[in-house]
Amino acid sequence: MKPLYGALLPLLLAACAQKELPTLSVLGGSELSDLKPILAEVAKTAGVKLDLQYTGTLEGTEQLLGGAKPDLVWFASARYLQLQPGMKGRIVSSEKIMLSPVLLGVKTSDARRWGWVSTPPSWKDIAARAASGELKYGMTNPAASNSGLSALIGVAAAISGKGDAITAADVTSDELKGFFKGQALTSGSSGWLADAYVQDQARLSGLINYESVLLSLNAGGKLQEPLTLIYPKDGLITADYPLLLLNKDRQAEYQKLVDALKSPDIQRRIMLETRRRPVNTAVKLSNLFPSALNIELPYPGSASAINAVLSAFLQDTRRPANTIFVLDTSGSMAGERMNRLKTALLGLSGADTTLTGQFSGFAARERVTFVPFNSDVGAAQTTDIGSAARKNAALDTLRSQTNALSPGGGTNIYGALEEAYRAAGQADASRYTSIVLMTDGESNEGPSADDFRGFYDALPANMKAVKTFTVLFGDGNKTEMNDIAALTGGRSFDGTQNLQAAFKQIRGYQ
Fold it and tell me: Residue 296 in 3-state DSSP?
């Protein structure tokens, strides 16, 4: 029997190799992360493996325009992507998988006081509450996240009454500026925004996000007060999560995947586990969702129109930012590391002309402060960018400050952070203040981590609301960076492979 077994072994191995499942590469929005358990079952049913790479809408669009060739693309919305001239003819098939409108969730006590429970308000009504200072809410950055972009376009379309013909001028109207006076929390990710709302709920009245996220928050047991979901009477924009096929050679596998995703059992699981609406009409809608139909607001018909709206929002409409960069200039930053830091900062100062670079650069009206540190903490260097008319001169100043950075000495992280928070405390309340800490090592001089924690705990509430976003770089201590971000309510980013990309991602949170 041994010779027979030996002869059969190669055949058995060959048979196993033939049964290897095909792998579909998928470029997907970060919002899909909650589908992981369901997708494992769907892939098995479809007889495929899914290699899912998460990205933001604008970042993913840039990758595709730059030559990326995944088999499939799966964003919350493909409207912006499909309007890109470079995508013409590349989309072979498109199938909507699930639905989730972008809404405002408001603390129930506020919704009752404002009369919004029995009678849904219009976006103009909501804008008036925000302009008065009564409504303080969180919303993602439209240049980084689809929920924020959908909200911006929807509000502009509703308030202007122009539908899909909105222009940059409509975004800079007094009513839109009043609406965004109420934004007290921003983010580059819908999921992170929800977590940040839980931390900051005492100072906020509500949150703009996907219906699914708001329903999940209400069910999560972490809210001091439930959110009443507001479906504005003049309409909203719905994410329909289309699954796009780019590789025509994978049409058969794509169709099996679509069929599995739209099957009644999977659609029901998606509805109950992620709180997104089914597209399969055979699945009865849960009583979690209101039965009334929502008015769908129109979307601009060109990418250039959306780009103009985004630019106007960042430069003229949003609350002006007060951005503080705490920059490691210790001896270990000499050479290539310092070059990479300068490249990242120069990119934000206008050198990066890519799609994401255009929308992540320093903006008009922004105040930018550099706090360089090594063994000592350097003097804070603040540049007020001011109006669009003087923006170029301000960017020249920032470029000069960047090029003047020089390495040497030890690493006094916590002393520099304390200086950054002192600078943050001097900003006026109309600005949205945040701190970015970039280091390639761990603190070996100055105050300790415990010293900083004591300093931070003693800060007044308005200064504690300032979040620190840390960037892991070089030989940076991951635990130390995560601890700082967790203490201050920020987030840690990995810049070890691409520091410039990490800096651009952080801009979605500022």
Answer: strand
Q: DSSP states of 86-138 as a string?
A: GGTTT--EEEE-EEEEEEEEEEHHHHHHTTTTTSPPPHHHHHHHHHTTS--EE
One-character DSSP codes across 431-480: SEEEEEEEESS---SSS-HHHHHHHHHTS-HHHHT-EEEEEE-TT--HHH
331 & 405 share domain = yes
Domain presence at residue 10 = no
Cα–Cα distance for residue pair 280/266, rounded to 1 Å:
10
Q: What is the pLDDT of residues 345-399, one digit of tens each?
A: 999 999 999 999 999 999 999 999 999 999 999 999 999 999 988 999 999 999 9
Q: 348: number of CA atoms within 13 Å, CB side?
A: 29
Residues 6+ apart with CB under 8 A from 508: 56, 140, 141, 143, 144, 145, 186, 187, 188, 189, 360
**The tokens of 14 are what?**
């060959």
Contacts (Cβ under 8 Å, ≥6 apart) of 142: 148, 149, 151, 152, 310, 313
In contact, 230 and 116? CB cutoff 8 Å: yes
pTM (2 d.p.) = 0.93
Q: Give Cα 308 to chain centroid, integer Å.
A: 20
pLDDT digits (tens, 9 = 90+) for 81-93: 999 999 989 999 9
**215 and 254 both lie in a single domain:** no
Does residue 433 contact residue 322 with C-beta atoms inside 8 Å? yes
Query: What CATH number should be reported for the domain holding residue 448?
Result: 3.40.50.410
In the chain, % helix, strand, coil (3-state, to 5) comes to 50, 20, 35
- Whether the CB-CB separation of 35 and 270 falls below 8 Å is answered with yes
The residue range of the domain holding 79 is 20-99+242-278
Q: Which helix (H) or strand (E) holds 384?
A: strand 381-384
- For 324-353, give one letter per residue: b (16+ CB within 10 A) or e: bbbbbbbebbeeebbebbbebbbbbbbbbe
Is 313 among the domain residues?
no
Give me the number of domains the chain comprises: 3
Say whether both 375 and 490 belong to one domain: yes
CA end-to-end span of the chain, whole Å?
71
* The two structure tokens encoding residue 316: 């003229």
Q: What is the DSSP string of 31-64?
A: GGGGGHHHHHHHHHHHT-EEEEEEE-HHHHHHHH
